[in-house]
Amino acid sequence: MTEPLLSIKGVSAFYGSIAALKGIDVEIMPGEIVTIIGANGAGKSTLMMTICGNPQAREGSIIFEGRDITDLPTYEIMRMKIAQSPEGRRIFPRMTVFENLQMGAATAEGGDFRNDLARVYSLFPILEQRSTQRGGTLSGGEQQMLAIGRALMSRPRLLLLDEPSLGLAPLIVRQIFSAIRDLNQREKLTIFLVEQNAFHALKLAHRGYVMVNGRIALQGTGRELLERPEVRSAYLEGGR
User: Fold this and answer.
1) What domain range includes position 25?
2) Do residues 163 and 119 share a domain?
3) Fewer Cβ close by (within 10 Å): the C or N end of the chain?
4) Whole-model pTM?
5) Helix axes 97-104, 140-152, angle to 10 degrees
């Protein structure tokens, strides 16, 4: 039986005395796209950050490829083939597109930089056109593509995407989600997606979880959750 690539069991995390995560259980199998949906403040981004060690889980365990990473510092976790494209993109605005991608490759062991760069440019051709342009001068959609490309340069086994569609025009959102689908289908890359756009996320994902007030309220396949009346009424813009 295949073991989960990532297993989160009973994880609680706090900001000071405030519990942001309350006994979270999530599993991600190799080759899956798994999404977490939920309202603002539900704890989705906190879960993503807790996987990366900041904040660290106060209770429970996080197991990646059979290794307990719960108490590891962030820099060690990032060396274990986990890469994150964080909420708000957080690119290096004064560096060029090319330099941002170089920074992403810093933890790639045994990588082929030219091939990895060609892979990102193939996925997002606009980045090649903008390669000498400073990141801070890119459009929001281009910055999101750069954030994902930078994460891919580290050759991750698990890609964490935090709100990749946030604030983007519908055409760019479709391009981003198409790229995520291609990465999963062509390269079998495992992807954990935190997303407010529940309709796109659940259409794309193999499985999904609904988070409410720091807890997992529902789980199922993407299709199952799309068909749940409570999900449709709460997250799918009036039952779209």
Assistant:
1) 1-81+159-172+190-240
2) no
3) N
4) 0.93
5) 30
